[in-house]
Amino acid sequence: MPTKVKELALDMLNMVDVIVKQNISNSLILMSYNKFILPFLRNRISITDDEIIKKNLQASYEKLKPFFEKKQIKEMIDEAEKLGSIKLPKVFLNEEREYF
Q1: What Å distances lie between residue 96 and 12, 68, 74, 75, 79, CA to CA?
Q2: How far is 46 from 9, CA to CA, in rounded Å?
Q3: How far is CA 49 from the centre of its chain?
Q4: pTM of the model
Q5: Using one digit for the tens of pLDDT, what is the confidence trace for 67-87?
Q6: What is the tens place of the pLDDT at every residue in 33-62?
Q7: Gap between the Cα atoms of 98 and 83, Å rounded
Q8: Do the Cβ atoms of 46 and 7 come closer than 8 Å?
């Protein structure tokens, strides 16, 4: 039974797997990916020490954090506009709209 940290790493691998598979049109490459690469990656995660995985997950979190903070700001501004009568100029959200 994998630990919570390894489960999270495997979940992230599964998310990346969906992205990768959407962009593989060659059936031979897809077969090789499914038969060799994906099992290899899952095995590597299962035998990697939890502390190493935690450090890598923390680094991933730090990279993703700014994107989700911008999304949260945009959602808060959108909600405020729904509740209030004042519309903010779109220029305030240009950077946030880039991601979401």
Answers
A1: 24, 9, 6, 10, 15
A2: 9
A3: 22
A4: 0.68
A5: 888 777 777 777 777 777 666
A6: 999 999 999 999 999 999 999 999 999 999
A7: 24
A8: no
